């Protein structure tokens, strides 16, 4: 950030001293970054709708399983894994910027592993809810809103894991470097966003909604 400000100040001084009109400062974000920002804003609206729907119907179910059947210890573990993955992907991006290709690959692999653990934990939780408690998406209103909200988040996490696997494959071949790291940066933004969404979902569904 300091380099960006210094560059713009230098450009302004140079322009004023030569009689040239002052040049407008460079945009801080490129087209790809603005595209991702727009996409994430649309995702905010999407998940907000699902969360509001879940809260609106919470407690209205009179028959069948209720939120009390949800396994809090398991989800706390998977939540720790997912939130930790924000730190590992940050380290992966940081090492890529400094040209440490091996460290980038290692931290990206760790991020993928944590994401997969989260998904496996979600699958295991759903297996128990279906077989032990009989909670399916069509069983009652709680099942419908629960599986829709948590399921769409899991679907987005799956997409993020796939994107990181592609990045890992390219990184192992040396096709991802600090000079063309824009793809890794955008995936990192997306992953941090999913972690932020999960904090809200976890709080609403597993803490306050029980």
What are the main properties of this structure?
single chain, 210 residues, mainly alpha, 76% helix, elongated, disordered N terminus
Summarize, please.
The chain has helices spanning 2-17, 31-57, 72-97, 101-131, 141-172, 182-208. It has 210 residues and is mainly alpha-helical.
Indicate the topology.
Elements: H1 2-17, H2 31-57, H3 72-97, H4 101-131, H5 141-172, H6 182-208
What do these coordinates show?
By secondary structure, the protein is mostly helical. The chain has one domain: Four Helix Bundle (Hemerythrin (Met), subunit A) (Up-down Bundle). Helix content is 76%, strand content 0%. The chain contains six helices and no strands. It has helices spanning 2-17, 31-57, 72-97, 101-131, 141-172, 182-208. Helix 2 (31-57) packs parallel to helix 6 (182-208). The protein is elongated, with a radius of gyration of 22 Å. Residues 1-25 have low confidence and may be disordered.
């Amino acid at each position: 950030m300091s380099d960006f400000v210094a560059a713009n100040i230098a450009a302004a001084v140079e322009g004023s001293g030569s009689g040239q009109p002052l040049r407008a400062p460079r945009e801080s974000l490129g087209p790809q970054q603005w595209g991702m920002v727009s996409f994430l804003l649309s995702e905010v609206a999407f998940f907000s709708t699902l969360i509001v729907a879940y809260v609106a119907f919470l407690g209205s179910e009179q028959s069948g399983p209720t939120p009390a059947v949800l396994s809090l210890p398991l989800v706390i573990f998977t939540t720790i894994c997912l939130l930790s993955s924000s730190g590992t992907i940050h380290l992966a991006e940081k090492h890529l910027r400094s040209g440490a290709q091996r460290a980038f690959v290692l931290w990206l692999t760790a991020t993928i592993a944590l994401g997969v653990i989260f998904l496996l934990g979600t699958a295991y939780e759903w297996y128990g809810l279906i077989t032990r408690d009989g909670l399916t998406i069509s069983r009652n209103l709680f099942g419908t809103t629960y599986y829709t909200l948590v399921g769409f988040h899991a679907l987005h996490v799956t997409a993020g894991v796939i994107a990181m696997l592609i990045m890992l494959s390219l990184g192992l071949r040396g096709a991802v470097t600090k000079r063309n790291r824009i793809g890794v940066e955008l995936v990192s933004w997306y992953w941090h966003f999913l972690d932020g969404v999960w904090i809200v979902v976890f709080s609403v569904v597993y803490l306050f909604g029980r």
